[in-house]
Design a protein that fits this description.
Number of helices of chain A: 3
Radius of gyration of chain B: 16 Å
Structural class of chain A: mainly alpha
Order of helices and strands of chain A: EHEHH
Number of strands of chain B: 9
Oligomer: heterodimer
Distance between the termini of chain B: 25 Å
Strand order of the largest sheet of chain B: 5-4-6-7-8
Number of helices of chain B: 4
Strand content of chain B: 25-35%
Structural class of chain B: alpha+beta
Shape of chain A: elongated
Helix content of chain B: 25-40%
Strand content of chain A: 5-15%
Largest sheet of chain A: none
Shape of chain B: globular
Largest sheet of chain B: 5 strands, antiparallel
Largest interface: A-B, 43 and 49 residues
Number of strands of chain A: 2
Distance between the termini of chain A: 20 Å
Radius of gyration of chain A: 15 Å
Helix content of chain A: 40-55%
Order of helices and strands of chain B: HHHEEEEEHEEEE
Amino acid sequence: MLLFRSEGDLDAWCQQEGRPRGAVLTLQHTWALAQAWYRNRLSPTFQGRSPAEAQELFASLGLRGPFWEVP
Amino acid sequence: MISDMDQAMRLHIYRFWCEKGRPPGVAENARACDLAETAALAAWRRLHDAHLILLEADGDRIRMANPLSAVPTNYRVRVGQHWLFANCAWDAPGIPAMLQQDAVIEARCSPHGELLRCAVRDGELLAEEALVHFALPFRHWYDDLVET
């Protein structure tokens, strides 16, 4: 996941790399995702997440649709 | 479900990494958990297979324990005395989120490499506007974590 200062810079990168645009989150939205995803990483009971748990976490942050679908 | 011993090794990896600024070698991890190196390497493989760490191709060095990166990247985070490298633009704020500590984040933006400096203070991210691009859908994230 790469960081960009603007939509224009992201478009330029996609064109330069010949890659389609994926999902784009603001830095603040990414911070919310990072907190949800990583805050229990040092817990002695952390074992990873089940697909259902990961899907629920994404949905709680408004991340829905095929891009965020957890197989 | 990982065993208590594998969990102890996983936690030692993180604690060691955050204290020393680098991942433990297998001997260090084995010694801390009172294991033979061969048993420690087998545990690393189980943690790798469970996506809890990522080993280098040779299998005897740790490349990632998300959000931490063993190799320098464009995303570094200072927490306390240490600079730690994150794997990506999402993992950079993941380090203070994991440690629940204040931090300074320095990241290079694509495609020109401008430096973006931001901070986490009292649970808030203090940063200029920027965008994080997730190039691959979730279903492909673990196909190649380095590429992701």
